[in-house]
Specification:
Layout lengths: L1 E3 L7 E6 L2 E6 L10 H15 L6 E6 L4 E3 L4 H5 L3 H20 L5 E5 L2 E3 L1 H7 L3 E5 L3 E3 L16 H6 L1 H9 L3 E3 H7 L4 E3 L4 H12 L4 H14 L4 H14 L2 H12 L5 H4 L3
Parallel strand pairs: 3-4, 4-6, 5-7, 6-8, 7-9, 8-11
Antiparallel strand pairs: 1-2, 2-3, 9-10
Helix pairs in contact: 1-3, 9-10
The chain binds coenzyme A.
Coenzyme A (COA) binds next to helix 2 and strand 7.
Amino acid sequence: METTSDQGDPRIRLEFDAPVAVLTVSRADKLNALDAAMVEALADACRRIERRDDIRAVILTGAEGKAFSAGGDIEAWSGEPPEDFGRFWVREGHEAFDRLARLRQPVIAVLNGHALGGGLELAACADLRIAEVHVKIGQPETGLGIIPGWSGTQRAVRRFGSQLVRRMALFGEVFAAEEALRLGLVDQVAKKGEGLSMARAIASTVAKRGPLATETTKMLVNMAEGEEVGRVGEALAGMLAANSAELREGISAFREKRPADFGKKSKD
Ligand code: COA
């Protein structure tokens, strides 16, 4: 197992155990609540994962304790000047969470403790969610007088449906694991302490599937969900163009300081 400790914030732990990467929110004393530095470290960790061809699936979990994540760090965001809350806190959270949701590898979230507010928004970025039987899931933000600002009214609606989000975000309903399974908030329920091994078993089957087919299929599903319409179109077109004789001719012509001859070369 290769642990990357040079990534800045030890509260976002990234371990490479090819073909699987394990990303752990590691701040158990504060129920794995996320502050701005952790959000930045999460985005960084995603960048590192993206670059690894040997990584075929990602497991996202929380350091052992009561919570997978109790959400955004209340002390951190409540101290921000009001304009900065939108300008930085919400925006940077979106950037990191978008990166996670758009990772080329499938992501399996193991909710080994409660997923509340930003914790659920984080879990919503995954492609599959396993909840251990004791966990609770909800969106308590309006009870604090704040909105679910890391895509809890957007990606969560797309993934879980607006009615469920209404129940959690407007009425404060909190769901236990079995009910969350019935409602489609999670995909599997594991016994306490067994979520990670269940995720590893699933990850090893993912790792046997065609990597490019899996990556592009994930892009397309994301696109159908409205996750990243413009970027997916450009990424797929970019993959096609990057493989074309046309591009090879264009680059050669540039380097040889001559006009490109697409008529001839594009038939190669
Ligand atoms: N932000 C910052 N700190 C948090 C936190 C959060 N979202 N959630 C928990 N913590 C901290 C607590 O302040 C406490 O710190 P302390 O020991 O220094 O006092 C520690 O984590 C343990 O939490 P505590 O509230 O004592 O545990 P509990 O078992 O009594 O309650 C919860 C558990 C999850 C019900 C409760 O922590 C809670 O409601 N958290 C906030 C959830 C939320 O509203 N999330 C959305 C935020 S936008």
